[in-house]
Each structure stands twice: as structure tokens, then as C-alpha cells.
Amino acid sequence: MLKRLICAIAAAIVLAGTAGAWSYPDKVHEGVDYADMECAGYDETALCAVLDELEGLDLERMDDARWRRVDDIYHQIEAEINVLETQAALIGIWYDASGGYAEAAEAQRVVSEQETRLFDRCYKALALLCHTPYENVLNIGRENAEALGRYGGLTDAMPELYMEEDRLEQAYDQVMAGAESEPESLLDLSETEREAGEIYRELVEVRTRIAEEAGYGHYGDYAYWNSYSRDYTLDDIRTVREAVKERFVPLLDAVAEGVSSRNLRALELRGRASGEEILDALGPFLESVHPALLEAYQYLREYHLYDIEYSGEKLPTGYTVALPAYGTAFLFNSPYGDYQDYSDAVHEFGHFNETFHSDTHPLWEDFNIDVGEIHSQTLELLFTDYADEVFGDLGDTYRRVILYNLISSVVDGCLYDEFQAEVYENPEMELEEINRLFKELSEEYGYYYPEDQETDGSWVQISHTFQSPMYYISYATSALSSLDLWLRAQSGREEAIDTYMDLTALSMSKPYREAVYQAGLTNIFRRGGVEDIGARLEAYLEGREVPEPRGEWGWFVKGTPDAGAAVLVLLVIPVFVAGAAGSAALLRRGRRRERVEPFTYPDRKPPWEF
Question: Hey, which bits of 104-192 come out as E strands?
């Protein structure tokens, strides 16, 4: 997406830090209660007026009065984009809370179209400042200004393709909401699978055209770079997938064997709590991790920036979304009604804390979700140390369940990445072929089926596949790093917490490999890196002393962090002219946490069946 292309390097340069020297940036928080935030849509009149003025200025002439006016216009553009993004977020919350209510769905379609069109126009207008005396008004650095100056705008086909993508995603929401609201539909899940599966085939076609418009061979490569700014490729991740199949799949059974069905049922009952009760428990835990986490937590509660209570109307999702006009964020979740709601709240607070402190403007912010998920999944693991305080004698059961979830994140993250990559590489696949592919890959990742079952359409229940394509590998990479960091905490908690706080201060400004390198964590792309984390985790599960991490990084991108940054700059420029995606739409939905079964007995397949 566009802002990923512009800012990956700017953020890395401006926000670079060193381990042990973390600090959150100064940022203004408006102090507005969620109940007082008006969800009214976006009036683009003011933004278009200042864009018209900027486009009409003679930028070859330089004088103090004109410089001040250009500076004022730029800050007005920033302010208006903040309002646009905040309205998009509020409408998205309304849409999810209402279960896809028709009026909310229409409002979401309108604001999504505005985002695509207005972001494109802003970048084209701001590109006029590049290579002029007014370039420094942008304050994004020479390299980023050079990249922005090459921006050629969306192709003619892109806006229509994005709107069609939005329409199909909403159609998927309606199919799945209908399946969950009618109990009898569970008796005919194959019909739901068929309807959702055919929608997915249409999405694959649309996204393939988007990738082609942007100059990519297939959508998987396009999403890795344009949507998520990843500093690794599909080729890079193949070695990680193979190591996960060999080393992490067996660990799932090892964890499951340590939990009795009796204790699991007891934990489900004891874990039932209201959203307020869960947030009450969160405060003391956060303080025990680091007092600096309390600022965001207290602000969250004081201004009621959350909706985590049960409602039969809610779409089954959970996420954190930025509200930049107010300098804060909002936490949304549709709860299970059991212990998983604690873990979800902890997870989403990890995202909330990052967004609350991030001071990068939406025009320029990056979206390295692999790093963002370390913020959340590490916090989930650290919460297991507090489990006895919340769940009493069932604390160890909770720890095992969360470990199972994190290992599942590794396994299923790789499964869904491999599944989607192959579909996007072969976009003409029929639905039966897609279902057969999923079943075959699932078996490679340790699942099993009755002998007479040849296909599996249950993949349609993972909303990321439809709404955040190629996202799921971020759960695997981040879970591996989170497990790595948590295992280090077993023998050095204070040092591990310092590393965690370093990562939260990095925000999502750095791509995954650079952030992990800077934090001193294991390189999962190094031969033996995944196996090393697996061996240490196995020692923990067997009650043995967790060994020290083995091996060095060996390489980083192409030599050193500085060399890696230079390589990324070269990669940004060629894809600029081709086009960009609706970046704000991704931010709105990108942090969703899927409705995955929190624990599965060894004889159940697949784990997301309810």
C-alpha cells in the first residue's frame, strides 16, 4: 500500500534506537470519551480546497510568505487526514458492533472510497513539493522525498478494483453472520463453505488484477511488500515453514497432553467474566510487567475506549484501531465468554499501547504487523506468569492453554500462508481444488481426517483469508519471536522485559527482521534458528532447564543493518509508479484476531471447529 512504500525507510531512519534506551515519544492525547465521538462520515470540502490551492501555487518562486502558506496547507492536510482516518475507524467499529448493519455497511463503502481517492490525491499534490524549495515542509527526509516525487498515482483501474474488493469482503461478512445467527445452518455448513468459497474465488480474481496493475506476478508477492512492508519474501519464508512442520507440530501434542479435560472445563467456567472485570485484572498485571504500560491502560479506561462486552449482534472479530484525530485508539472484541477473553484483552492491549504512543502521521506511518504482533503475543505469554492470581489452582492449566495457542499461531500461520500463496500463484483454481489443497496442506501440518474425506472447506471460517490476505504468517513469525523472548525471561526476566519495552518503543516503524536484529533475538531465517527455539521450548515443557539460545544472526538482509536499509530504498522506487492500495482500509481491519478455538483436544480436527 502507498504509505508502506513511502515510509518504510523514513521510519527506520527517524525512529532508530538502541537496545536498553527505549522511550515513548511525546504525543498529544485529546482526552475525549468514546461516547462523545461523533460518527458522522467525512466532509472532504476543506481538504479538497487546500489541495486545490496547493496544486495551483507557483512552487518555483520562494519567499517567506509563500513558505508559511505552504507549511499551513501541509498541516491542514495532516489535520484533515486525521479526521478522515478517525471517521473511517468509527464507522468500522459501528459496522462490526452492529453485525454489518446495512446503513453502516453503506457508510463504510463511502468512506473507503474516499480514503482511496483522497490519499491518492494527497500524495500526488505533496509530490509537487519534492525537488522544490518547499521540500523541507514535508520533513520526511531526502530519500523519502525522492521516492514520493516518483509517485505516479493510481492507475485508472485501481479505484474500481478496490471498491469491488470491499464489496466482496462485506458479502463474506454477511454469509458468515447468517451462518452464526441461524443454529440450523450449522447442520449444513457445506452451504456456508460453498458460498464463502465462491466469494473467495472472486476475491482472488480481483486481487490478481490489483497485483498485475501494480506490476507483480501474483498477489502473494504484492501483499508481502505493499500491504505489510515485510523485509522477507515468500522464498525466504519457505525454509521457516519446513522447519515448523518438523519441529513445532509435535509440540502441540506435548502441550495438550499436559491438560486434563476436567481442568479445561473448570477453567472455562472460572474464566467467565465481564469486560470490566477483565480490565480490572489487567491493571495489576501491566504494572508488574512495567509501570510505563499503565499510562495507556489508565487512558483506555478513563475515556472508555473499548467495547469488549458480549452482544449477539457483533461480528465475530477483535482488533485495535487508531483514532488519530484524538491521539489515541479503540479496542474492540466479540468475546467467547471464557478464559480466552482475558488473553484477547491482553493481546489487544499490546496493540493499543503501541498505537496510543505512536506519533507517526497516517500519511507516513508504516505497518510492520510482524513487529506489532510481537507486542501483543509476548504480552499474552507474560500474562501467564500472573495466571495464578486470576485463576488460582487452574493457573497452570491456563499457562498450558496459552502456550498451545502460541504454538498454534506458529503452525497455523505457516499453514495459511502456504495455502494462500499457492492459491494466488494459481488463481484459476476451482473451489473443489482449493478445498483439496487445504486438506492436503493441513495434513502436512499435523491435522488428520477420516479416510474417506478428500477435501476440507473449513478454511472459510478464518476471516483474515478474506479481509487481510497473506496476513497470517505474521502470527507465525511474531509468535516465534515472542516464544524466544519469553523463554529468555525464564532465566532473565528483567533483561527480557527491557527487550520487550525496546520493541514497544520501536512501534511498528521497523520491518520484522531489522527489529528482531536490533532487539538481539533469534534469527528464524538462519539455518537452525526455528529448531533452536523449538528445542528450548521442549526443555521448558519437560521441566528441564531452558538452555541459552544458540547461534549468531549470521546475516541481516544483505550484510549489515545499514546495507539492508539501502537495499530497501532501491526496492521502493520501482513499484511506486505502478499504484497503491487503500492504506487506511488495511489499518481499519488489519489487526483483527480470528475466532480460533482457544484449545483443542488431541482427537479433534480442525481446531477452529466450534
Answer: none
278/309 Cα distance (integer angstroms): 10
Angle formed by the axes of helices 369-383 and 340-357, to 10°?
130
- Reported as type and span, the H/E element at residue 250 is helix 249-256
The residues facing 333 across adjacent strands are 318
Q: Are 595 and 461 in contact (CB under 8 A)?
A: yes
Q: Which three cell numbers stand for residue 588?
A: 481499519
User: Could you tell me if 486 and 6 are in contact, meaning their C-beta atoms sit under 8 angstroms apart?
Assistant: no
Q: How many CA atoms lie within 13 A of 70 on its CB side?
A: 27
Whole-angstrom Cα distance, residue 301 to residue 297? 6
Quick one: 269 exposed, middle or buried, by C-beta within 10 A (0-12, 13-18, 19+)? exposed
d(CA 369, CA 126): 26
Kindly provide the b/e burial profile for residues 359-396, where b requires at least 16 CB atoms within 10 angstroms of the residue's own CB.
Answer: ebbbbbbbbbbbbbbbbbbbbbbbbbbbbeebbeebbb
446 φ/ψ sector (left φ>0, alpha ψ -120 to 50, else beta): left
Please name the residues in contact with 87: beta carbons below 8 A apart, sequence gap of 6 or more.
Answer: 39, 40, 41, 42, 111
Q: Could you tell me the pTM of the whole model? A: 0.84
Neighbour count for residue 451 (Cβ, 10 Å): 6
Please give the Cα distance from 601 to 445 (Å, whole number).
Answer: 16
Q: Distance between CA atoms of 193 and 458, rounded to whole angstroms? A: 7
24 Cα distance to chain centroid: 21
Q: Are 89 and 588 in contact (CB under 8 A)?
A: yes
pLDDT in tens, 148-195: 999 888 899 999 999 999 999 999 988 988 765 443 433 345 889 999
| Residue 320 β-bridge partners | 331
Residue 508 burial (CB count, 10 A): 27
What are all long-range contacts of 389-396, with beta carbons under 8 Å and residues at least 24 apart?
A: 389/281, 389/284, 389/285, 390/281, 390/342, 391/267, 391/270, 391/271, 391/339, 392/270, 394/263, 394/266, 394/267, 394/270
Residue 412 near residue 389, CB atoms below 8 Å: no
Burial classification of residue 264, based on how many CB atoms lie within 10 Å of its CB (0-12 exposed, 13-18 middle, 19 or more buried): buried
The model's pLDDT over 438-457, given as tens digits with 9 standing for 90+, comes to 999 999 999 989 999 999 99
